[in-house]
Amino acid sequence: MKERAIEHKLVTETVRRRGVALKFVSPGCMGVPDRIVMLPNGKIGFVELKAPGKKLRPIQARRIQQMRKMGFKVYVIDGMEQIGSVLDEIGECAKWN
């Protein structure tokens, strides 16, 4: 399974939950997560996507640590089975209809 397939599923599931998963590109600032996930009621999280078994690059690990120290929710997903639980946590287990 490729990272692209996991990313597509994340975007699709986020939209199903009435949210958006914006591509996060920050010129001049390496290691930022791939997506900014925004869900209803002001819920936000950052998601780094990896192909199964692939590791974070050192700059990515440092950036994630930095963001978490500032209080942001940052997740690393390397399988489609993780998407639902990550979105639940970002949305603080809100009910989705």
Give the key terms:
97 residues; alpha+beta; Trna Endonuclease, Chain: A, domain 1; four-stranded mixed beta sheet; 4 strands; VRR_NUC; hydrolase; nucleic acid binding; VRR-NUC domain-containing protein; tRNA_endonuc-like_dom_sf
The CATH class label is Alpha Beta
Termini separation comes to 29 Å
Low-pLDDT stretches: none
Enumerate the strands of the largest sheet in spatial order, edge to edge or round the barrel: 1-2-3-4
Provide the residue-averaged pLDDT.
Answer: 94
Report the total helices: 3
Q: Return the CATH topology.
A: Trna Endonuclease, Chain: A, domain 1
GO molecular function, one term: hydrolase activity, acting on ester bonds
Keywords: Hydrolase, Nuclease
Cofactor: Mg(2+)
Organism: Selenomonas ruminantium
Summarize the structure.
With 97 residues, the protein is α+β, with helices and mostly antiparallel strands.
Polypeptide structure, described:
This protein has 97 residues and is α+β, with helices and mostly antiparallel strands. The chain has one domain (3-90): Trna Endonuclease, Chain: A, domain 1, CATH 3.40.1350. It has three helices and four strands. It has a four-stranded mixed sheet. The N and C termini lie far apart (29 Å). The mean pLDDT is 94.
